[in-house]
Design a protein that fits this description.
Distance between the termini: 56 Å
Order of helices and strands: HEHEHEHEEH
Largest sheet: 5 strands, mixed
CATH superfamily: Glutaredoxin
Helix content: 40-55%
Number of strands: 5
Strand order of the largest sheet: 1-3-2-4-5
Shape: globular
CATH topology: Glutaredoxin
Strand content: 15-25%
Amino acid sequence: MLLPLVLLVVPASLALYTSKDDVVELTSANFQSRVINSDEVWVVEFYAPWCGHCKNLVPEYKKAATALKGIIRVGAVDMTQHQSVGAPYNVQGFPTIKIFGADKKKPTDYNGARSAQAITDSALAEAKRVVSGRLGGKSSS
């Protein structure tokens, strides 16, 4: 009887983020409604739990999520569970970070440093473009 219980616990423990983090778990069931249909800017990491670079990013990504809380949404997609979410965005390696801002159909690829400061700077720059566009200004994207 203990074996089935252990098997249920193990997959959950492989996730890099939990409900206690400021990183929103995004899935094939909620990605469209939470990110694409949202007016908010989202920073989304596409990751695999076994990926060493993804594991190394976790502390900085959590720090960025906490710093951006209430300003910009930060989420993560476990691609081992929800591959269909990343397919339209050409996610081929891990971690891949994309910023969904003014044009949700064409998110911005994040290729900067893997630090909370660099991630937040890019997210805030995209938020500025969104605000400028809403005010009728020209977007620099």
